[in-house]
Amino acid sequence: SIHNEIYHSPVTNRYIENSLIPLKDERDRVYAVLVMAHDNTDLITTANRLKVNIAELETTKSFLEQLMDSSVEYITVLDRDQRFITVNKKFEDTMGVTRESVIGKHLFDINPGVRDTLQHESILRTLEGETVYLHKRQAIARPVIFLDTYFLPLVIQDKVEGTIIMAREVTDIVKSEIQLQEKNLELQNTIDRLRKQETRDEQKHNFIA
After folding, report:
1. What confidence tier does 100 reach under pLDDT thresholds 50, 70, 90?
2. Are 159 and 67 in contact (CB under 8 A)?
3. How far is 170 from 181, CA to CA, in rounded Å?
4. Are 133 and 150 in contact (CB under 8 A)?
5. Summary mean pLDDT of the chain
6. Nearest to 166 by CA among 109, 99, 86, 57
7. Taking the model in full, what pTM does it have?
8. In the structure, what pLDDT confidence band is assigned to residue 203 with cuts at 50, 70 and 90?
9. Contact in structure between 24 and 2 (CB atoms under 8 Å)
10. Rounded Cα distance, 14 and 1, in Å
């Protein structure tokens, strides 16, 4: 049988693959061995570099995920086909899903209510290179939550490859504004009632006089 082995020369720093091929006679007896050498330095060097690059990418990915998970914003990353690339922990906790369970799934599979909405239109606009901001809008999947949301194009090597969605919850602010509006309305109604009462009293006084 053919035997292959790779030899690394510390002197030349070359990787040589030796193939040992037995030569047999008509009686199937080995009478010689043919040795063929092939320089695999470029191939092995490239493979080693890829291993290092993959390890670096995994480290970078882990760091980016930790960075995203520490954010107070909801973060979602979609590809051009509107399939999930990743989400952060805030998204996981609020939506009741895991990062692993949504990766690769279409946006409509996870949040079907987003179809034909201003939010979906904003995502499509990012694919044309636009940045879109939506102010104090209800979350479609969680209507009790109000969000300030940025829709950003995901640009890789000068090409838009998807969408980054970053949303900050402003529910407490919106609730406070609603309460303030209600208080202002109550105050205005009280003032209107008092003015009407003053007018009636004045008319009554004039009638008596």
Report:
1. very high
2. no
3. 17
4. yes
5. 82
6. 86
7. 0.62
8. low
9. no
10. 26
